[in-house]
Design brief:
single chain
């Protein structure tokens, strides 16, 4: 299974960041899998942002819930992250990942740098 994040590398403050993660070699509707977005700000650790289950249910980090939306397109076998009202503090490397359970991340994208700056 392969994942690859795609989206703009530069976003202006107050805009909405949108990233897509096409999945190849497996289906995003495979039973029990969680399709997850994780980010790593410069000099900091990994931050779990949210996930969508194989059935389409979504879960978000409490600190980001008001600004985060995860959706999917099963016809394209991909899932998407939208983060609204971004600030420079949202500058990070963003990863998409596939997890067989809440603790085990089996598949990772290579990560994409997103910078929030005017």
């Amino acid at each position: 299974v392969q994942l690859q994040e795609s989206g703009p590398g530069l976003v202006k403050p107050s805009q909405t960041l949108s990233l897509t993660c096409p999945v190849s070699g497996g289906s995003i509707t495979t039973n029990y899998y969680l399709w997850t977005w994780i980010r790593q700000p410069p000099g900091k650790g990994l931050e779990w942002m949210g996930a969508m289950t194989y059935s389409g249910s979504t879960y978000y980090s409490p600190s980001l819930r008001s600004r985060t939306s995860i959706s999917r397109d099963t016809s394209k076998n991909q899932f998407t992250l939208q983060l609204s009202s971004v600030t420079p503090e949202d500058t990070a490397v963003y990863y998409c990942a596939g997890a067989s359970n809440w603790l085990t991340y089996d598949y990772w994208g290579q990560g994409t740098q997103v910078t929030v700056s005017s």
